[in-house]
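Late entry, evening session. Most of the bench is empty. Finally got around to the prediction I had been postponing all week. Sequence below, unchanged from the version circulated by S.P.
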Amino acid sequence: MHIFALNCGSSSVKSALIDTSTRQRLFAARVENLGAPGADLQAAVAKVLQDLHEHGAPDAIAHRIVHGGERFVQATRIDDAVLEQIEKLSHLAPLHNPPALAAVRLARSAYPQTPHIAIFDTAFHATLPGHAREYALPADLRQRFGIRRYGFHGISHAHVMATVAVKLGADADQLRIVSCHLGNGASAAAIERGRSVDTSMGMTPLEGLVMGTRAGDLDPGILLDLLQSRDLDAAAVDEVLNKKSGLTGLAGTNDVREIERRATAGDERCRLALAIYSYRVRKYIGAYAAVMGGADAIAFTGGVGENSASIREACLQRLEFLGATVDARANRNVHLDDVSPCCEISQPGARTRILVVRADEELAMALETASATSSS
C-alpha cells in the first residue's frame, strides 16, 4: 500500500509517502520553524498536499494525533464525529492537537475520497498498569476530569521497541527496554516484554524530563504559589509552562547545538542546563530499570538523542551497575540512515546494550495504517 503519513508537530510538519511493502519513501517533505515570521502551518500543509498530487492519490493518509484520551487506543478512521471527540481533548495537548486537527481538515478537503486514519501518540501507553497510570488524588476528581497518566511519544517508543528487537535478534516480548525520546519534546518509557509499563509524561506532555520549552517535573506547590501571588493568572502560567521553561528557561534557547557551543565556551547557564537535562534522563533510566527488574537495552532516539554524543554520554554516567558501559569511540561515530537505522554504542559484552535508533514516526504511522486498513 501507498500510505501518506502527515506528522504535524508544534513547530514542524514532517511527511512521507511510503510504500509499506518495501518501506521505501516515494516522496517526503519537511517544514521546520513553524510559528516564525513567514512560516505558517496551513500554508505549509497546503504546499505539502499540493506536492503530493504529483505522485497520485495515496491508498490512505495517516495523521499523528498526540492526545487520544481514554477513548482512542488504536488506529481510528477519521470522520466528523471522531474529529469532534479529538477536538475536546485539545486542552490536554494545546501545542499539538490543534495544529494536527487543522492539518486533518486540510487533508480531508484535498482528498475527500481517501481514508484518513488517526494514529495516537497515547495509544501505545494504554497498557500502563494501574499503579503507574493513576495519580494519588481523590477518586471523584480523577473520574470527573479524566485525570490519569496517558503518556506520549508512543508512536516513537513503539518504533524504538521494534527496531531494538530486530537489532538484538530477539522478540520484543522477550526484552526490557528503557526508551529515551530526546528532542524538543522529551520522554522516557519503560517497555517490558512488548508493553509500555511506565512513561515520564503524564496526563499532559508537561510532566517528566526537561524539554526544549517545558520544565518537566515540578513541585505543584510552585504553581499554586505563582497563582496565589496574583502576578500571573492561569493563562500566564500556561504560557510559562509550555513555552518559556525547560532549556529555554535555563539557557535562553532550546537549540541544543547552541547550548552545547556556549557551554564549551564557558557559559555557566548553559553548563547547568545540560547538567539538569542529562541528570533528569539518568534518573528516569535508573528508575525504569528498577521498575522492570533490570534492562536488556537502553535506547536513544529523537533529534537530541540521535545527534548529541555528549548528551548521550552524560545521560549514561554512573550506570555501570546496570551493566551499561559506553564505547566512547562508537558513541562519537554514530551514523544512522535507511540501511542502518540502529547503531550500538555499548562496549562489547555489555550486559545492558546501549543503542541509538533513527526516529521514523512516519514509517511507524504508515505501517500501522496499512495494518488497520487491510484488516477492516
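Two things to note before I forget:
The longest helix spans residues 268-292.
The first strand starts at residue 2 and ends at 8.
Will write this up properly tomorrow.
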